[in-house]
Amino acid sequence: MKKVLIIICCCCVTSIFSQTTEAEEVLKKQSKDSLEGWKIGGIFSLNLTQVGLTNWSAGGENSISVNGLVSFYANLKKGNSTWDNSLDLAYGILQQGGDAARKTDDKIDFTSKYGQKAFKNWYYAGLINFKSQMSAGYNYPDDSTKISNFMAPAYVLGAIGMDYKPNDNFTLFLSPLTMKMTIVNDQTLADAGAFGVAPAEFDILGNVTTPGKTIRSEYGGYMRAMFKKDIMKNVNFQTKLELFSNYSEEPDHVDVNWEVLIAMKVNKYISATISTQLLYDHDIDISVDSNDDGIIDAVGPRTQFKEVIGVGISYKF
């Protein structure tokens, strides 16, 4: 009888242990599945400002402005592979008094990055980035001479390197092998040598003998760091820093692109957004009229800065 009881007890213990092990395996599988697959999200914001004046003694002008912003991501993780995609779009217009509408913001920025795990939090990775704008740009108040356009400029960057991803909030991509292509798909701007492309050659009468180049290629090193996190309740912070150095032409002149986006949610649909962008590209000459007298005082590379603050409709998903 004792032997029978011992055998029964052993069978029960074995059965319980087996069930526990199976349950743990199921939980591990569910946990792994929850970490894998697509993660999709982003922020959409539309801000509207309107000023209407009637017999206003303090003076001023009627105005209306609209700014739209979309920051979208779609990331896939499967096994030892990752595929991260992001798209940032922004556009803004302002109509003031009797003047025609003017552009205040314009951005297209798409990035796709694929990685294969190397060790721990490091991945072998390849990256493609495209930047441009949607419509023509002018140096107001001169609204007849285009200084930029769609695909003029456009920047296409391809890079191979290592990607460090310790968590979903931070990523650091380092590439010693990078190709950066500047496209100026507007012959007038290309002939002027805008955005660093080779300018046209002219005869003594001012006629074009050799058209300006519409493409310029550079090879060098590239770094891209991104961080995004809800820093407090209803406040999301995102920042991105990109650095590029041309190995063959003045490698000490590093191209800089630093962007910051802060989205603060008031309620389900109303929010405020603050976005900034700092740019420096040694190949882009900026004309400066310090006295606002229509006379250009200096031409050369400058640090560029843009700030957009808006309150309006916003949706985070």
- CATH class of the largest domain reads Mainly Beta
Largest β sheet strand count, sense and barrel closure: 12 strands, antiparallel, barrel
Indicate the structural class.
Answer: mainly beta
Q: Give the mean pLDDT.
A: 84
Q: Which consecutive residue ranges, at least 5 long each, have pLDDT under 50?
A: 1-20
Task: Tell me the domain tally.
Answer: 2
Look up the CATH topology of the largest domain: Outer membrane phospholipase (ompla), Chain C
- Tell me, what's the shape? flat
User: Helical element count?
Assistant: 2
**What is the strand content?**
over 45%
Indicate the radius of gyration in whole angstroms: 27 Å
CA distance, first residue to last residue: 66 Å
Task: Walk me through this protein's architecture.
- The protein is mainly beta and 317 residues long.
- It folds into two domains: 35 residues; 279 residues, Outer membrane phospholipase (ompla), Chain C.
- A hairpin with a 5-residue loop joins strand 10 and strand 11.
- It is flat, with a radius of gyration of 27 Å.
- The protein starts with a helix and ends with a strand.
Q: What features would you highlight for this structure?
A:
flat, Outer membrane phospholipase (ompla), Chain C, 317 residues, disordered N terminus, mainly beta
Itemize the secondary structure elements and their pairings:
Blueprint: H1 2-35, E1 37-51, E2 63-78, E3 81-96, E4 102-119, E5 122-132, E6 137-138, E7 146-148, E8 154-164, E9 170-183, H2 187-191, E10 201-202, E11 208-210, E12 215-232, E13 235-246, E14 255-265, E15 270-280, E16 286-288, E17 298-300, E18 304-316
Antiparallel strand pairs: 1-2, 1-18, 2-3, 3-4, 4-5, 5-8, 6-7, 8-9, 9-12, 10-11, 12-13, 13-14, 14-15, 15-18, 16-17
